[in-house]
Automatic annotation (TrEMBL):
<dbReference type="InterPro" id="IPR002347">
    <property type="entry name" value="SDR_fam"/>
</dbReference>
<keyword id="KW-0560">Oxidoreductase</keyword>
<dbReference type="InterPro" id="IPR036291">
    <property type="entry name" value="NAD(P)-bd_dom_sf"/>
</dbReference>
<comment type="similarity">
    <text>Belongs to the short-chain dehydrogenases/reductases (SDR) family.</text>
</comment>
<protein>
    <recommendedName>
        <fullName>Secoisolariciresinol dehydrogenase</fullName>
    </recommendedName>
</protein>
<dbReference type="InterPro" id="IPR020904">
    <property type="entry name" value="Sc_DH/Rdtase_CS"/>
</dbReference>
<dbReference type="GO" id="GO:0016491">
    <property type="term" value="F:oxidoreductase activity"/>
</dbReference>
<dbReference type="Pfam" id="PF13561">
    <property type="entry name" value="adh_short_C2"/>
</dbReference>
Length: 259
């Protein structure tokens, strides 16, 4: 039985739109799927975590959400598309010395984090070009803009996401298709906490630039709702940082350091 309640019709920003969200079974993707549904969108969750994905769809309701088992690194797994959210990603243990990094591990991260965005964008464009409209949202990271925050593979993969976003925006503008990137700061999702072996507040304690607030999954979902709606009709090719100012400051520079 569906447990998600629609917003009042006048408040729905995605009414009647169809959205595909990769990696939508958990974390940022799940929060985005839930918020999209509240705003009136029909949501297709594409993920390899079948049980989690199907559970989210049950919560959202069969009429508004469906699940597709999809390995985003395999092109043949892709089948009215208004919004594409390329969110699926993995991390890898950071190895500070590049000499200790393995080619196979590097390629695995690039395959999921970068190649999947290329494939998702490619096939979203195929569906959107005939209607000459659509919004593609690629999920990057603060590692899309700065170095020294994550592993070599992860940082490279997220820089690639921004580069692809800008390049495809230059191409698809002629069809009225917008494509943008969302780059959040670290969020302690269940997956990231388990992977990095950290607690709930670890991300907040590291170089937080905003007092009294911490980044939550729904904050990124709200930014995705904005980019997926018709409101930013003239915004394309941009990298929207959802990071509390993290990428605008150098934590090692003491001019604005707090006592």
């Amino acid at each position: 039985m569906a447990t998600t309640t629609l917003l009042p019709r006048e408040a729905r920003r995605l009414e009647g739109k169809v959205a595909v969200i990769t990696g939508g079974a958990g974390g940022i993707g799940e929060s985005t799927a839930r918020l999209f549904s509240k705003h009136g969108a029909k949501v297709i969750i594409a993920d390899i975590r079948d049980d989690l994905g199907k559970s989210v769809c049950v919560d959202l309701g069969a009429e508004t959400a469906s699940f597709v088992h999809c390995d985003v690194s395999i092109e043949s797994d892709f089948g009215k598309l208004d919004i594409m959210v390329n969110n699926a990603a993995i991390g890898d243990p950071p190895k500070a010395n590049i000499l200790d990094n393995d080619k196979a591990d590097f390629e695995r991260v690039i395959g999921v984090n970068s190649t999947s965005v290329f494939l998702g964008t490619k096939h979203a464009a195929r569906a959107m070009i005939p209607s000459r409209s659509g919004s593609i949202i690629n999920v990057g990271s603060v590692s899309s803009s700065v170095g020294g925050v994550a592993s070599h593979a992860y940082t490279s993969s997220k820089h690639a996401v921004v580069g692809l976003t800008r390049n495809v925006a230059a191409e698809l503008g002629r069809y009225g298709i917008r494509i943008n990137c969302l780059s959040p700061y670290f969020i302690p999702t269940p997956l990231s906490k388990e992977f990095f072996k950290i607690d709930e507040n670890a991300g907040v304690r590291v170089y937080s630039n905003l007092d009294g607030v911490s980044l939550q999954e729904e904050d990124v979902a709200k930014a995705a709702v904005y980019l997926g709606s018709d409101e930013p009709k003239y915004i394309s090719g941009q990298n929207l940082a959802v990071d509390g100012g993290f990428t605008t400051i150098n934590p090692a520079f003491g001019l604005f350091a707090r006592a």
